[in-house]
What we know:
Elements: E1 5-11, H1 18-26, E2 33-39, H2 46-51, E3 58-62, H3 68-78, E4 83-86, E5 92-93, H4 98-102, E6 112-119, E7 124-126, H5 132-135, E8 145-148, H6 149-155, H7 166-177, E9 182-192, H8 197-200, H9 204-222, H10 230-243, H11 260-269, H12 274-277, H13 280-293
Parallel strand pairs: 1-2, 1-4, 2-3, 6-9
Antiparallel strand pairs: 4-8, 5-9, 6-7, 6-8
Helix pairs in contact: 9-10, 10-11, 10-13
Amino acid sequence: MHPKVSVIIATFNADKHIRKAIESFLSQTLDSKELLIIDGNSTDTTISIVNEYLDRGVRMVSEPDSGVYDAMNKGVNLANGDWLYFLGSDDFFMNEKVLEHVFEDSHDDIDILYGDVYSVLLKRNYDGPTNKEKIMFSNLCHQSIFYRKEVFVKAGLYNLNYRLFSDWEFNIRCFVEFEFRTKYIPVVVAEYAASGISTLNKDTKFLRGFLFPENLKYLLQNGTERLKKIRYYDQWWRLLRSMQVTDDLRGYANGISVPGKILKMYSFQKRFSHKVLFNGVFSKLLMTLSYLTNR
């Protein structure tokens, strides 16, 4: 017997896309499923569109909220499923058998299942298997992940302090802090739209206040020798660049010691404008030069 899967869609003025998202859910061949639409009191025709489906296993709550993660938290609390999945209002399942393929096995010993998504922005599948080190620099799309509901009981809900990357903070909690049992499955779950808020903006509060100190802790716990690997050095380069800090980097470390190599990398970046640092070719050349002179 398949477990019940709760699909949660947070919406606000999503009438251009929501019908396709709902239809992609209804087409799923897995029988044990439910769809929760958590709407932020839309002022377009989103609510009237969703109302057309309320007699087909779709539930909706529409009320003001504090953003997408607040809506997702509401969905977690309302869900009746054994597994929870978050679909964007402008995303859709890749085919009608996705849920059936994901849950064709019981996964009794797994807390988090994840596959891939097709990224419209990148024009390719994203992003394969992950691990503790990878997720510290590269998030999993929430459209690729299935969580047991108990994960939220143990790890808590999404942190509303991070407007754009609360799902990343939550995933780091899951993979690094709580060390939940995870499994990658080679299934392209959904098409992920390029218009997602986290792809178009930077949450410097998250990068400076959470991701930077968390990476410092991870680096110090696992050894600064890792910085001898150019790929790992490049990931740190990208993090410091994205933080767009202009003052003392140590002020964002939450009291954690900042290794000399990281301070030298930051000092090197400060010689150049953000425009240069975000130019792909120049940034790669500068990163390589920094790496060669910072060994």
